[in-house]
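Researcher: Here's the sequence for the chain we discussed earlier.
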Amino acid sequence: EVQLAESGGGLVQTGGSLRLSCAASGFSFDSYAIGWFRQAPGKEREAISCISREDGTTWYSDSVKGRFTISSDNAKSAVYLEMNSLEPEDTAVYYCAATWLFCSGYGADAIDYWGKGTLVTVSS
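Model: Thanks. This is the structure I predict for it:
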């Protein structure tokens, strides 16, 4: 069974940090680029970051570039999102998502597997 299990969400104050984790199982971890989407209340789901082990690339949306860092641990089949300088606008459900091989064109239509999400709330 394919699983992407997110953890690490919670409540944090403005300017604080959180580290999200995504544990992957049930598929070939090395064959997929894995990243993160988020969906704030009343808004569309937004792709924010991706990492590909196939070509070693990472990608960030403008909204998180410079504040968030994505990384992966092949031995643990896990992907992490280090989030710093959090703002109330970062409040959302964060989803781990996998697409075949590369981060190029990383959008909702290209996703093969989704996690169930973890809630991040940033208080002002």
